[in-house]
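Revision sheet: C-alpha coordinates.
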Amino acid sequence: MAVSKVVATAAEAVADVGSGSSLAVGGFGLCGVPVDLIDALVASKTTGLAVVSNNCGVDGGGLGRLLAEHRVARVTGSYVGENREFARQFLAGELEVELVPQGTLAERLRAGGCGIPAFYTPAGVGTLIEEGGLPLRYGPDGSVLLASSPRELREFDGRRYVLERAIRTDFGLVRASRGDTLGNLIFDKATRNFNPLCAMAGRVAIAEVEELVPAGALDPAGVHLPGIFVDRVVVADPSRPKVVEKRTVRSPP
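Predicted:
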Protein backbone atom coordinates (compact mmCIF):
# COMPACT_ATOMS: atom_id res chain seq x y z
CA MET A 1 0.00 0.00 0.00
CA ALA A 2 1.35 3.45 -0.96
CA VAL A 3 2.50 5.65 1.92
CA SER A 4 0.88 9.07 2.33
CA LYS A 5 3.16 12.06 1.72
CA VAL A 6 1.01 14.43 3.79
CA VAL A 7 2.63 16.33 6.66
CA ALA A 8 0.69 18.17 9.34
CA THR A 9 2.04 21.72 9.05
CA ALA A 10 4.06 23.96 6.76
CA ALA A 11 6.65 24.30 9.52
CA GLU A 12 7.10 20.52 9.58
CA ALA A 13 7.31 20.43 5.79
CA VAL A 14 10.30 22.83 5.68
CA ALA A 15 11.94 21.80 8.95
CA ASP A 16 15.05 20.47 7.21
CA VAL A 17 15.58 23.55 5.00
CA GLY A 18 18.77 24.85 6.56
CA SER A 19 20.78 28.02 6.14
CA GLY A 20 22.56 28.09 2.80
CA SER A 21 20.00 25.83 1.10
CA SER A 22 19.02 26.36 -2.53
CA LEU A 23 15.31 26.65 -3.33
CA ALA A 24 13.33 26.56 -6.56
CA VAL A 25 10.13 28.45 -5.76
CA GLY A 26 7.04 28.41 -7.96
CA GLY A 27 4.82 31.35 -8.83
CA PHE A 28 4.64 34.33 -11.14
CA GLY A 29 4.28 37.66 -9.40
CA LEU A 30 1.93 36.65 -6.59
CA CYS A 31 0.07 34.02 -8.65
CA GLY A 32 0.59 30.45 -7.49
CA VAL A 33 3.16 31.35 -4.85
CA PRO A 34 3.64 28.87 -1.96
CA VAL A 35 2.99 31.54 0.65
CA ASP A 36 2.47 29.19 3.59
CA LEU A 37 5.81 27.49 3.00
CA ILE A 38 7.51 30.88 2.62
CA ASP A 39 5.96 32.06 5.89
CA ALA A 40 7.24 28.91 7.59
CA LEU A 41 10.75 29.71 6.31
CA VAL A 42 10.45 33.26 7.63
CA ALA A 43 9.58 31.83 11.04
CA SER A 44 12.42 29.29 10.89
CA LYS A 45 15.14 31.99 10.72
CA THR A 46 17.16 30.23 7.99
CA THR A 47 19.62 32.54 6.23
CA GLY A 48 21.90 32.62 3.20
CA LEU A 49 19.30 31.09 0.90
CA ALA A 50 19.92 30.75 -2.84
CA VAL A 51 16.56 31.23 -4.54
CA VAL A 52 15.59 30.28 -8.08
CA SER A 53 12.24 31.82 -9.05
CA ASN A 54 10.75 33.75 -11.95
CA ASN A 55 10.77 36.86 -9.75
CA CYS A 56 11.11 37.54 -6.05
CA GLY A 57 7.59 38.47 -5.04
CA VAL A 58 6.70 42.05 -4.15
CA ASP A 59 7.57 44.28 -1.22
CA GLY A 60 6.12 42.51 1.80
CA GLY A 61 4.63 39.62 -0.20
CA GLY A 62 5.80 36.18 -1.31
CA LEU A 63 9.58 35.85 -1.44
CA GLY A 64 9.73 39.58 -0.74
CA ARG A 65 9.26 38.71 2.93
CA LEU A 66 12.50 36.73 3.01
CA LEU A 67 14.29 39.47 1.06
CA ALA A 68 13.14 42.14 3.50
CA GLU A 69 14.80 40.24 6.35
CA HIS A 70 18.04 39.78 4.34
CA ARG A 71 17.65 36.02 4.41
CA VAL A 72 18.37 35.58 0.67
CA ALA A 73 21.97 35.64 -0.55
CA ARG A 74 21.43 34.91 -4.24
CA VAL A 75 18.54 35.05 -6.71
CA THR A 76 18.32 33.43 -10.14
CA GLY A 77 15.29 34.84 -11.94
CA SER A 78 13.86 36.55 -14.98
CA TYR A 79 13.04 40.04 -13.71
CA VAL A 80 12.98 42.28 -10.69
CA GLY A 81 9.30 43.08 -11.09
CA GLU A 82 7.49 45.21 -8.52
CA ASN A 83 9.93 44.60 -5.68
CA ARG A 84 11.75 47.84 -4.85
CA GLU A 85 13.71 46.19 -2.04
CA PHE A 86 14.95 43.56 -4.50
CA ALA A 87 16.27 46.29 -6.80
CA ARG A 88 17.76 48.24 -3.89
CA GLN A 89 19.64 45.25 -2.47
CA PHE A 90 21.01 44.29 -5.90
CA LEU A 91 22.20 47.79 -6.77
CA ALA A 92 23.63 48.31 -3.27
CA GLY A 93 25.74 45.17 -3.52
CA GLU A 94 23.83 43.31 -0.80
CA LEU A 95 22.47 40.60 -3.09
CA GLU A 96 23.86 38.46 -5.91
CA VAL A 97 21.45 38.25 -8.87
CA GLU A 98 21.61 36.17 -12.05
CA LEU A 99 19.08 37.46 -14.57
CA VAL A 100 18.03 34.77 -17.07
CA PRO A 101 15.70 34.96 -20.10
CA GLN A 102 12.33 33.64 -18.94
CA GLY A 103 12.12 30.76 -21.40
CA THR A 104 15.71 29.77 -20.66
CA LEU A 105 14.97 29.75 -16.92
CA ALA A 106 11.97 27.48 -17.46
CA GLU A 107 13.99 25.10 -19.62
CA ARG A 108 16.92 25.05 -17.17
CA LEU A 109 14.53 23.97 -14.41
CA ARG A 110 12.83 21.39 -16.64
CA ALA A 111 16.19 20.01 -17.76
CA GLY A 112 17.30 19.65 -14.16
CA GLY A 113 14.19 17.68 -13.34
CA CYS A 114 14.63 15.43 -16.38
CA GLY A 115 18.29 14.63 -15.78
CA ILE A 116 19.55 16.68 -18.73
CA PRO A 117 22.79 18.42 -17.66
CA ALA A 118 22.79 21.19 -20.29
CA PHE A 119 21.24 22.30 -23.58
CA TYR A 120 21.79 24.76 -26.41
CA THR A 121 19.45 27.71 -27.02
CA PRO A 122 19.48 30.74 -29.37
CA ALA A 123 18.23 33.00 -26.55
CA GLY A 124 21.04 35.34 -25.52
CA VAL A 125 23.23 34.95 -28.60
CA GLY A 126 24.98 38.24 -29.38
CA THR A 127 24.32 39.68 -25.91
CA LEU A 128 26.17 39.78 -22.59
CA ILE A 129 24.74 36.32 -21.88
CA GLU A 130 26.95 34.94 -24.64
CA GLU A 131 29.87 37.33 -24.19
CA GLY A 132 29.98 37.40 -20.39
CA GLY A 133 30.19 40.50 -18.25
CA LEU A 134 26.57 40.61 -17.08
CA PRO A 135 26.69 42.05 -13.53
CA LEU A 136 25.95 39.48 -10.82
CA ARG A 137 27.01 41.55 -7.83
CA TYR A 138 27.74 45.26 -7.44
CA GLY A 139 29.99 46.98 -4.96
CA PRO A 140 28.70 49.74 -2.65
CA ASP A 141 30.22 52.30 -5.03
CA GLY A 142 28.38 50.89 -8.05
CA SER A 143 31.33 48.98 -9.47
CA VAL A 144 30.84 45.42 -10.72
CA LEU A 145 32.42 42.99 -8.26
CA LEU A 146 31.22 39.80 -9.95
CA ALA A 147 30.17 39.27 -13.56
CA SER A 148 28.91 36.35 -15.61
CA SER A 149 31.30 34.17 -17.60
CA PRO A 150 31.13 33.74 -21.39
CA ARG A 151 28.95 30.88 -22.62
CA GLU A 152 30.13 28.07 -24.81
CA LEU A 153 28.95 28.69 -28.37
CA ARG A 154 28.03 26.15 -31.06
CA GLU A 155 26.59 26.42 -34.54
CA PHE A 156 23.86 24.11 -35.80
CA ASP A 157 22.49 24.35 -39.36
CA GLY A 158 24.01 27.79 -39.78
CA ARG A 159 22.58 29.25 -36.56
CA ARG A 160 24.47 30.04 -33.35
CA TYR A 161 23.43 28.70 -29.95
CA VAL A 162 24.71 29.20 -26.40
CA LEU A 163 25.11 26.43 -23.86
CA GLU A 164 22.96 26.70 -20.74
CA ARG A 165 23.39 24.51 -17.66
CA ALA A 166 20.44 22.79 -16.02
CA ILE A 167 19.29 23.89 -12.56
CA ARG A 168 18.97 21.54 -9.61
CA THR A 169 18.19 22.81 -6.12
CA ASP A 170 18.07 21.29 -2.67
CA PHE A 171 14.33 21.96 -2.36
CA GLY A 172 11.40 22.83 -4.62
CA LEU A 173 8.51 24.77 -3.06
CA VAL A 174 5.23 24.92 -4.98
CA ARG A 175 1.51 25.63 -4.58
CA ALA A 176 -1.23 23.61 -6.26
CA SER A 177 -5.00 23.94 -6.45
CA ARG A 178 -5.66 20.24 -5.82
CA GLY A 179 -3.49 17.38 -4.75
CA ASP A 180 -3.86 13.87 -3.45
CA THR A 181 -2.09 12.09 -0.61
CA LEU A 182 0.47 10.64 -3.04
CA GLY A 183 1.54 14.08 -4.30
CA ASN A 184 -0.21 14.14 -7.67
CA LEU A 185 -0.96 17.81 -8.37
CA ILE A 186 -3.37 19.91 -10.42
CA PHE A 187 -2.86 23.66 -10.95
CA ASP A 188 -5.68 26.07 -11.78
CA LYS A 189 -5.11 28.12 -14.94
CA ALA A 190 -2.22 30.61 -14.58
CA THR A 191 -1.14 29.18 -11.21
CA ARG A 192 0.51 26.41 -13.18
CA ASN A 193 3.26 28.85 -14.33
CA PHE A 194 6.65 27.74 -12.98
CA ASN A 195 5.27 25.43 -10.30
CA PRO A 196 5.67 22.02 -12.01
CA LEU A 197 9.18 22.93 -13.16
CA CYS A 198 10.28 24.05 -9.69
CA ALA A 199 9.01 20.82 -8.15
CA MET A 200 10.89 18.80 -10.78
CA ALA A 201 14.13 20.71 -10.19
CA GLY A 202 14.10 20.26 -6.41
CA ARG A 203 15.78 17.20 -4.93
CA VAL A 204 13.07 17.41 -2.26
CA ALA A 205 9.79 18.84 -3.57
CA ILE A 206 7.25 20.23 -1.12
CA ALA A 207 3.74 21.19 -2.22
CA GLU A 208 1.07 23.17 -0.41
CA VAL A 209 -2.36 22.36 -1.81
CA GLU A 210 -5.62 24.25 -1.51
CA GLU A 211 -7.67 21.05 -1.64
CA LEU A 212 -6.42 17.64 -0.53
CA VAL A 213 -8.19 14.52 -1.82
CA PRO A 214 -7.59 10.79 -1.26
CA ALA A 215 -5.32 8.83 -3.55
CA GLY A 216 -7.24 7.74 -6.63
CA ALA A 217 -9.68 10.66 -6.54
CA LEU A 218 -7.91 12.59 -9.32
CA ASP A 219 -8.38 11.72 -12.98
CA PRO A 220 -4.90 10.61 -14.09
CA ALA A 221 -5.41 12.33 -17.45
CA GLY A 222 -5.93 15.66 -15.67
CA VAL A 223 -2.86 15.54 -13.43
CA HIS A 224 -0.35 18.27 -14.28
CA LEU A 225 2.50 16.96 -12.11
CA PRO A 226 2.79 13.27 -11.16
CA GLY A 227 3.46 12.44 -7.55
CA ILE A 228 6.80 10.86 -8.45
CA PHE A 229 8.20 14.41 -8.41
CA VAL A 230 6.67 15.38 -5.03
CA ASP A 231 8.00 14.33 -1.62
CA ARG A 232 5.75 16.18 0.84
CA VAL A 233 2.24 17.63 0.78
CA VAL A 234 0.68 20.08 3.23
CA VAL A 235 -2.78 21.64 3.17
CA ALA A 236 -2.71 25.40 2.58
CA ASP A 237 -4.29 27.74 5.10
CA PRO A 238 -7.87 28.23 3.80
CA SER A 239 -8.32 31.48 5.73
CA ARG A 240 -5.52 33.31 3.95
CA PRO A 241 -6.84 35.85 1.40
CA LYS A 242 -5.41 35.72 -2.12
CA VAL A 243 -3.60 38.96 -2.87
CA VAL A 244 -3.83 40.65 -6.28
CA GLU A 245 -0.54 42.20 -7.36
CA LYS A 246 -2.15 44.95 -9.44
CA ARG A 247 -5.88 45.46 -9.31
CA THR A 248 -7.31 47.18 -12.39
CA VAL A 249 -11.03 47.87 -12.63
CA ARG A 250 -13.14 49.50 -15.29
CA SER A 251 -14.97 52.70 -14.48
CA PRO A 252 -18.75 52.19 -14.34
CA PRO A 253 -20.65 53.39 -17.43
